[in-house]
Write a structure and sequence with these properties.
Elements: E1 10-14, H1 19-30, E2 34-39, E3 59-62, E4 73-76, H2 85-88, H3 91-99, H4 113-120, E5 131-134
Parallel strand pairs: 1-2, 2-3, 4-5
Helix pairs in contact: 1-4
Amino acid sequence: MNDLDYTGKTVLVVGGSSGIGNGIAQAFRVRGAEVHVWGPRASADDYDAAEGSDLSGLHYTQVDVGDMDAIERVEPGFVATKMTKVTTENPKRKQMAEASIPVGRMGEPHEMAGPALFLASPLASYMRGQTLIVDGGLTLS
C-alpha cells in the first residue's frame, strides 16, 4: 500500500491558486488526486504562471477564504513566492534572511507539499487541529 497515492480521492486546497498552495495542489495532482483549488480572483485566467500559478490539471473556484483554524495546516517559514519578492529580489535582504535560517536558504513552494501530503494521508490519522511548522529550523534559532 502506498500511503501517498491519492488516486480516486478529491482534494481541496484553499489558496491553491498560487505560491505554496499551488505547489501543494500540484503535488496531490501528480499523485492521482482530483484537485480543486480556491482563490480570491474571479477566474483561473486571472493568474499568471510567472507569479507562481500553475493551474493546469486543477479545478479553480473563486471563494472568499475565511478562518481555517479548525483544520490541520502547514505554517511555512520564509518561502520564495510573489509575496516575498520584496526580499528575494533584493540581494542584501535575501542574504540577511537566508543567514537567519539554519538550513541557510529559503524554502520553495514545492517543499511545503510533503507536510501537506502527510497531513492528508493515513499516516496522520490521529492528528486533529495541528499546525506543522515548516521553516528550515528558523523557530529553533
